[in-house]
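Thread title: Can someone regenerate the structure for this chain?

I was given the following input by a collaborator and told the matching structure tokens would be attached. They weren't. Posting the sequence so someone can regenerate them.
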Amino acid sequence: MNIALIGYGYWGPNIAKNIVASSKMNLYAICDHNPVRLIKAQATYLGQTKYTLDYGELLENPEIDCIAVAVETEAHYRIAKDILFANKDLFIEKPFTDSVEQATELASIARERNLAIHIDHIMIYNQIIKKTKQMIDKGELGELIYIDSSRMNLGKIKPDVNAMWDLAVHDLAVIDYLGNGQEPYQLTAMGEKCYGEQETLTYLTLKYNGFIAHLKSSWISPLKERRMIIAGTKKMIVFDDMKTVEKLMIYDNGIEVTSYQENPEYEDYAIKVRTGDLFVPFIPEEDALKNSLEHFAGCVADRANSISGPEQAIRILKILENADKCLHSEGLKYRNAKL
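Best answer:
Regenerated them for you:
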């Protein structure tokens, strides 16, 4: 399968590397409007692939089956629409588009033309998230209680999206995947524009049927964190993606409420903390981006829907749009009462 890449900036080189490493795809061409980036690509791949400054050349080439897009979010809709109208399957970085309206239109075009769209919600192709999903589906965690996520670093401030659209989108995709597409019925969001026109720090809280999720996203943290706590009534999980070993820790911990009397008084109730074993499973290391690309290749070959297709992306964009409205509203004003 011949695939071309548009965008060789921050993430594009990683996509190119994993396409080359895959047995399912051939890196047919690399495109970037910046000639300096193309020179960098040529220094890496030499004559292995073709190079162009104009992505229009890719659209007109019948030898190219599909195109991967790794450019700034504000250009996603325009480029993706051109690709679909050229009857080529689409692999695109997150977030899918700037709005639900744009995403819905692209999804409609893809359905009409029987084309695959795959959004690179990379975390759901991580082996640890797959393991967590298996545990939830088997009932090993019990009922979900809460999910708490911290995704923070220092720098890499983007001008076209805020920290929530850049970072929390990963965790929203994971929650959507673990919850089988369940959508929240309530949300609150707060943020701060410390530098530039976009929020560099955001806090997003979501209420689902049965559990709550809290997502912290920051470009101004002195520490780099990629940590998620997933708590169930039977077991609790900590996934720390910054660790080189012991990334996944499974705690056999929980809370038990018991009463030993037929007509108990208040003091007869006992709330007990149950502390069991700590288990660190061995999970073979795999490249999540390679898994994502190969899942896309399988969808193209089989004309199947991607698990991170436009339907999932639209659910996530709905959350982000509503969270933006919350960020930019006046909210509830609070003042200390005068004593």
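The chain is about 30% helix and 30% strand.
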